[in-house]
Design goal:
By secondary structure, the chain is mostly beta strands. It is 3% helix and 20% strand. The protein has one helix spanning 140-143, and strands spanning 18-19, 31-34, 40-41, 54-57, 63-64, 77-80, 86-87, 100-103, 124-127, 152-154.
Amino acid sequence: FYNCLALESVTIGAGITEIADHAFENTGLTSLHIPGTVTTIGNSTFATCQNLKNVTIDEGVKSIKPNAFLQCSSLTKIVIPNSVKQVGNHGFENAYAVKEVIIGNGLTDLPPYFLDAISRTISRMSFCEGTLPPVLPWKSTVFLPFTESLTSSTI
């Protein structure tokens, strides 16, 4: 479906365990539900989906590969469920509309440039119990060059 701008919705069936690299890159998707039967979201799978506003990732997803949601400029909230153990570099880079980020306790090592270039728009950041805060593994300029708009943080 790469570059299929007319594609606005997709249903990912319960039997799907992996979403391939670039599968929905640069499509017209507006919202998305990823069921827990999917264990891996591939590299650049939803990159440059400019209209993607809402994404629900269910418990069961274990890996979000690099650039998976790169430049999803309408995405407003990122919730990484507890089951996710890995998010690749640049996972949500340039998702400029993001206001809230919630990181589950399965993710104990945040990648470089995870939220690069969007930190100025984030107003709420939460880390579930057991999750490393961003200042431990990286320089703040790599993960979040904190942010004029941050009003709430829960660790």
